[in-house]
Structure formats: C-alpha cells, structure tokens
Amino acid sequence: MRYIKYTGLFVVAVIIVLGLALSCAPAAPKQPIKIGLLFDYSGMGSADIPFHEDGARLKLDEVGWQIEGRKIELIPADNGGDPVKGVEAVKKLVEVDKVDVIIGPVWGHVALAIAPVLAQSRTPNIIPSGQTMGVIQAGAGNEFLLRGTFSGNAYYSGVYAYEDRGYRTAVVMYDDFVTGEMFATGFTKPFEERGGTVVQTVKPPLGTFDFAPYLTGIKTADVLAMWIQPPELPPFYKQYNEFGLKMPIIYTSDTAENELWTAVGDYCIGTIAQHEYSPFIDTNTNKQFVELAKKKTGGMPPVMSFQEAGYTAVTVFLEAVKAAKGDTTHDKIIEALKKVSVDTPEGKISFTNEGMGVGNELIVKIAKKDGRYEKEILKTYDQVVRKAPWE
Amino acid sequence: METILLNVLNGITFGIMLFLIASGLAVIYGFMGVLNLAHGVFYILGAYFGLAALAYGVPFVWAALVGGIAVGLVGLVVELVFLKRLHKQLNEQVLLTLGFVYIFANLARWIWGPYAKVIDAPAIVSGSINIGSASFPVYRLVIIAAGLALAAGLWLFTEKTRTGSVIRAGMDDKEMTTGLGVNYGLVSSAVFFTGTFVGGVAGFIGLPIIPVYPGMVFDILLLALIVIVVGGVGRIEGTLLGAVVIGLIDSLGKAYFPDFAYFTMYLAMIIILLVKPSGLLGRGK
Description:
Mean pLDDT of chain A: 89
CATH topology of the largest domain in chain A: Rossmann fold
Number of helices of chain B: 11
Oligomer: heterodimer
CATH architecture of the largest domain in chain A: 3-Layer(aba) Sandwich
Order of helices and strands of chain A: HEHEEHEHEHEHEHEHEHEHEHHHEEEE
C-alpha cells in the first residue's frame, strides 16, 4: 500500500516537472511570411527584367526581409501570360508553398482564370494592374485591385478632355477586344455625359500593324481618343503622321513606357494620357523610391511603373500584416487590407470594402526629358475610387 | 472617289507587304517541299540584323542586304545541318522548324529585348504625296515597286532559267533529277538560302510599316501560309496574286465593313478555297 502511495506521488511529480519543463521551453520559431509573386517570367508578354519582382525586392530590402518578428520569403511563380499556366502556378503557390498572399498577375485573362481558384482558399490576392470587375465578382472578398479597373483607368481622360481642354468632339479608336472597349467606354461616357460628341468610333482588330484603312477614312474632330495595345503604338503614330493627320491624341490609359515611346519617337510628344504613377510625383516618398530604384538599376529603370506597382503592392501587404499584428491567416489579412491606408510612391493607397483600390489618378503628358519619354503630370485627381462610377 | 482610290492603294500596299512576307516561304515550300515554320522568325531576324547594320551607319539599302544575307546564312546552317536529312518528311520538318521558332525567338528577345522596333523610311522616300485633299506615304509606293520587282525576279529565276528548271524538276522527282547528274544538295541549299534571304530582306524593308518584336513570329507565319494557300503552291505569280487579292479584300473590308475586320481575310480564304481548292494559280495534284 505504501509502495503504491509513493509510486502515485512519484508519477504526479513527474507530470508536474514535465509540465513545467514544457511550459518553460523556448517557443517554436515563427513561420516565415510567404509572398507569392505571379508574373510573366516567360512567354511573349514577359519583359527582359522582372520589374514587378524588382520593385517587391526593393521594399523588402527596406524592411530587412522581416516584419512583426517574422521573416519574409518571396516565392516567384511564372504564369507565362497563359490562364492554364496561371492556374497551375496558383495551385502550387496555395497548396504546396502555402503562401500568405499572391501579388499579380498583370494579364486580365489570367486574373479571371485564377480568381475562382483563389476564392476556394480565400488567399488574399493583390493585383497591381488594371483589371475588370469580373475579377472581384469571381473572388470571395479576397481580391484587391490596387490599380482598379480598365474603365476607371481611362475615366478621367474623358473628364479632362471636356472640362480642362475644352474638346467638344472626338474620334474614339480602340483595339476591338474587351480591354480596348473598356478603356474606350472609360473615356466616352464621361465625355458624352458632359456634352461632348463622339463623331466616329474606329475598332481595328487586336494586333493591327497597318492602320492605313482606318486612317484613310478617319473623320475630323477636336481630339482622337484612342487605346491600342502598346506594341501597335510605333506603327500607329508613324502612319498617323504619314497620312497627314493633325488631331491631338489622348491615349486614354497610358499602358506604355519609355521603351515603347522610344520606338514611337518624337511623334508621341504631347500625347495626353491617364495613369496612376509618374516618377515626377512630387512627394518625399516618391523621390526616395526613385532614388532607390535608380541605385538598384544603375539609372532610371526602363519600366518604372511596374517597378513601383511591385513596390507598392508589397508595401500595402506589409501594412496589413502590421495591422494584424503578424497574424497572416487569410481572414485577418483580408480584413486588415480593407482598412489599410498607407503612403506609397503613387500617393496614399487604401481599398473599398469590395477590394477596389482608392488612390490618385493622374493626367500626364508624354514629354522628352534627358533623352527619355516621361510622363509629365498635368493634373491629379485626388483619392478617387479607381473604377468608373457605373461599375 | 478619292477615298476609294486611297483604299485601293492601301489594299495593294498591304497585299505587296503580304507578298514580301510570304515569298520566302513560298520559295522554300513551293520549290523544295520543306514546310519551314521558322519563316516568321527568319523574317524578324532579318529586320534585327538590318537594324544592327543601320546602327553602325550602313545605308538603308545595304542594311537590308546585310539583314537578308545574315539570315540567309543562318538558314543555310539550318538546312545543311538539319533539314537536309528530312527530305519529304513533313512531320519531322514541322517539329524541327517549330523548335527553331522558339529558340530563335527567345534569342532575339534576349539580344534585342521584347519591345517593338520600327524605323522611319529613308529620307529620300519619307514624304507623302497628295491625292486630292488626302496624303499617301511615298514609301508605300516604294514597297509596291520593290514587291513587284522581287516577284518579277523570282518568276524569271524559277521559270526562265536552267537553274529554275532544275529546282522545279527536283521538287517533282528528286531521285530522277539526281540521277541525271544534278547536284541537288547544292540546289536545295541555294533555294533555302534564297528563301530565307528574301524573308530577311522583307523583314527589314517592311520596318517603316510593320514593327518587329519577338512575339509576332506566329502572326507572320500565319499570314504567309494564308497567302501561299490562297495563291497556290509552287508558283510565284500565284503567291503575288494571292497576296494582292487578300490584301485588297482585307483593306477594303476594314474600310467599308469594319465590324467584320477580324475575319474578312479568313472569309476570303474560305471562299477562294471552296471554289478552287488548289489555290488561285495552284498546280494542283
């Protein structure tokens, strides 16, 4: 009996000691925060430098690759500009890598393809380029459109054309596919609502390089408002000039950068466009960013806008992590992103409850500075929801 | 009237550009039976090589020749090392040349970047002429003249010279031609060089109208195939006729029926092939 009593006491003592030992053991190391980058590292849409990733790395260098006591890992994945590849890459990021957020893609058709996949796990998705409302609709509250929608990215070009330039008639030209149509609508609706008249709409097929049949029959108006995909810009501008056309041009949403404007040449000088970023934004945050980017690239980066978008997307995410006190469960990050308000090179950025980016929209003019074709800022529409009012 | 004239001129220009794009492939496929899917990539390489020469101060015409010769040499290597072993093996030719598309297109991207490149026409032909109150670029007239000259040259070479007869004989029956003492290997290498040379020159002289970028290789290939199929395989005059007909239908369609612009070219191709399955001037079976 005494033996049993002492044995029982011994077992209790062992349990207490073990319990104490376990409770005093050092905590398991915190899991790193994983950021998935979904961009075009291959395929015909890829650039020679992964600009978005460069921008993301700039921001992570700045914070020493850690936040809230957790290390940060960057996991790049290639979508090849292809929805099928995009879905495969997303599945790997979500199921194998178990990322906390996905930043990207650029292409609208890839974003639409991956949205239902991401909706299943509610993985937060920050998209740093214009998209359609369909992406938000296909999501489950986890989609965040930093740069808003295509129509939103062109809306203020229509407002500006009528109100500030005094244009009353316009010829509207756009590549005949959904993105082109949305950019065109973005310009046309506010222009007509204010009393402007669209005298002609011209819709060359996507991939047109010989615009002669369209330029021959083009009518005369106060302005030509157009959006064609960037590789078509060089032949368009040259042919526009060769056919003796003189109307001022509004490129409804400036999706081109210095490299392409260089291929166009001086014909593009004076073109007015809407965009979300210019290296000439006169704030300390932007000046610091430009200096950082220059240091990294050894000069002005060729596609500054992408670099900034990558930098800003990571900035926004890190701000949400801070607000969630390092808890990166999807629901916590989604809630934090909805409340985030952070200063970035393109100005203050926040999101609406549905995930639409709120920030500045700029009216820019293409000007030549130090041999580069840059976006000179003419006007800033402060803190607007980056979608068209009817969306 | 003035607009109609301009639209017809646009159509002819586009047609001649299509001929320039397709003629190299027409020579190789029509006279060698080799389906060279790498034609689009040879077209852009010609433009890039020419641009490199232009950057070194080589005059426009010479830069076009440099582009053509450089691509011709690349083509010659491809023919001598690979295609020579695949005579009449269409599937293997398709796979091999498709592989070269990816290799050369990615090399081009690596060396010259992904962005479109386009140049101004040489100063002497850079202006516009007035047609009524409208303008028409002089360089487009130059392109029409160059295309017609090329067509005439290729036609004379293939139809009126002994070498041309040998090429056509080799296409019909390689063994018999070789049995008659003809060095057909040399002939086929010369034809491949010519075809890629023409493709390369077209890529460069088309630059003031058509930009080049690595992503366009399949667009160029598709246009070339449409023209060859519509014109008829094995005859240069067929390729020229096919190109002009397609160019005119496409341009006039875009001008007068813009809502159908995406498929006027394909609609024309379908109708022509339904009426004449071997193409407008095809030799048939």
